[in-house]
Amino acid sequence: MTQHPSPTPPDDVPLVTLAVDRAIATVTLDSPRNRNALSARLRSELSEALAEAVADDGVRGIVITGTGPVFCAGADLKEVGATLQGTPAEPAPELPEIFEQIMGAPKPVIAVLNGAARAGGIGLVAAADIALAPKSATFAFTEVRIGVVPAIISVPVSARMHSRQLSRYFLTGELFDASAAAKAGLLTQAVPDRDMAHAVDAVLQGLRGSAPRALSRTKELLGELGAGALAAPERRREAFTRMGELSAEFFSGEDAAEGRAAFFEKRSPRWAQ
């Protein structure tokens, strides 16, 4: 899932904003023109905002949300295609670094979805400690449908989702709703749209009423007790390295080129039956 062509905002217009209120830092993906796709510039600004929130001693918890109808569309396919054709890539943190910032942060991170999430955008959801989404939100791991593998996001996602649903949605690329996402373990809660503000406030009030050092140690404890890739940072680093190599292999392949072309030309890829 990516975006319709539209002008890129000037460099002085941020794609990610940071605001702090009563011990909660809210990091907002603000690139609705391309459905908050994970471009190099957005990744850089997201990484900087996360680092600033973590370094702020007055911050108790971090919310990640977005503007527009989509939380995050995943990779910026136009940028990926341009890079593979030789256009120099803007220096920026890659997704493993972003995910590690969230998963390894000493403060709770809450994903508050404003809409749909796709592919790499679901990685942000899975990396967060708590994830709330309106019931109208939809999800899909679209990688296989454009000829690539959901490799890097498999590290945080596999630590959240139950294996049967993970297999189904990774292998089919089909759409699923927020209620299904909650049942699969991806979301903490699927909330009626009209009740989102109340549900988010309940979580944030809990964080505001908790001792900062206790919160930090409890998050660390959850990692120690958790399964899979969340259990140990060194295992995450190794997994991200291997998955990055696999991702690069497929993104540079012929199927991925066909998948991108089919997406932008609004047609079925040649392998579709």
Automatic annotation (TrEMBL):
**A Pfam family hit:** ECH_1
Protein family (similarity comment): Belongs to the enoyl-CoA hydratase/isomerase family.
According to the lineage, what is the superkingdom? Bacteria
Q: Which Gene3D superfamilies match?
A: 2-enoyl-CoA Hydratase, Chain A, domain 1, Lyase 2-enoyl-coa Hydratase, Chain A, domain 2
What InterPro entries does the entry give?
ClpP/crotonase-like_dom_sf, Enoyl-CoA_hydra/iso, Enoyl-CoA_hydra_C, Enoyl-CoA_Hydratase/Isomerase
Print the organism lineage.
Bacteria, Bacillati, Actinomycetota, Actinomycetes, Streptosporangiales
- Its protein name is Enoyl-CoA hydratase-related protein
